[in-house]
Specification:
Layout (H helix, E strand, L loop, with lengths): L10 E3 L2 H9 L4 E3 L11 H5 L2 H10 L4 E4 L19 E5 L4 H5 L1 E4 L13 E4 L3 E8 L3 H16 L4 H10 L13 E3 L8 H7 L1
Parallel strand pairs: 1-2, 4-8
Antiparallel strand pairs: 3-7, 4-7, 5-6
Helix pairs in contact: 3-5, 5-6
Pfam family, one: Nucleotid_trans
GO molecular function: glycosyltransferase activity
Protein name: Nucleotide-diphospho-sugar transferase domain-containing protein
Length: 198
């Protein structure tokens, strides 16, 4: 992060050892000891804790670029953000169709001829390891929903994150109303883009 000249950052440490590691390297560090549902310490259990911590930043009006520890920065990422939505997130897609969405056209059903062609939209998952949150009521509501789900459900945080971003409000689901932008996959690239296409 320092090598990429990122000036506005803080390491959120979940334990004393990580906090000491950061402080020994003059990294701004926030020690926040929280426990995952069931006390688990595997990567999925620990990853779900981020939503609880992000609520704290959003509540005081601080927009946040969340980055898991396995993200590498080559340049300051803030210069590539649009900041025009509640959530701006990295995609697991590797081209325009997979990252930004693509219409899928099916053949007409003879029994339902009045429908014409069936159409659906296919979009690859957003990665819950890198996303930017504006300090808005909607982004806060999303983090509250995610924190609640992580505390009460046995669900992978990335699955729940995508469900909340993509599922519209309906009689069986109340969405939180976030607006979403997909980060440019050429700037915020996942390992598929890095190792298969570059």
């Amino acid at each position: 992060v320092k090598a990429a000249a990122v000036r506005a950052f803080v390491l959120v440490a979940l334990d004393d050892e990580t906090a000491e590691f950061g402080r020994a390297r003059a990294v701004p560090t926030y020690l926040r000891k929280v426990t995952a549902r069931g006390g688990g310490t595997d990567n999925h259990a620990t990853s779900g804790l981020k939503f609880r911590i992000l609520k704290e930043f959003l509540t005081v009006g601080c927009s946040v670029l969340l980055s898991d520890v396995d993200i590498i920065y080559m340049a300051d990422p803030f210069q590539f953000l649009y900041r025009d939505t509640d959530v701006e997130g990295m995609s697991d897609g590797w081209d325009d169709a997979t990252a930004y969405g693509d219409a899928q056209y099916g053949t007409a059903d003879a029994q339902l001829h009045w429908l014409g062609e069936h159409t659906s939209v296919r979009v690859f998952a957003r990665n819950s390891g890198l996303f930017y949150l504006q300090a808005t009521h909607e982004a806060l509501a999303l983090m509250e929903r995610m924190a609640s789900r992580m505390a009460s459900e046995a669900v992978w945080d990335q699955s729940a994150y995508n469900q909340e971003l993509f599922r519209p409000s309906s009689p069986v689901h109340a969405g939180v109303g976030t607006t979403v932008r997909v980060m440019r996959y050429e700037c915020f690239l996942n390992t598929k883009v890095l190792f298969r296409f570059l």
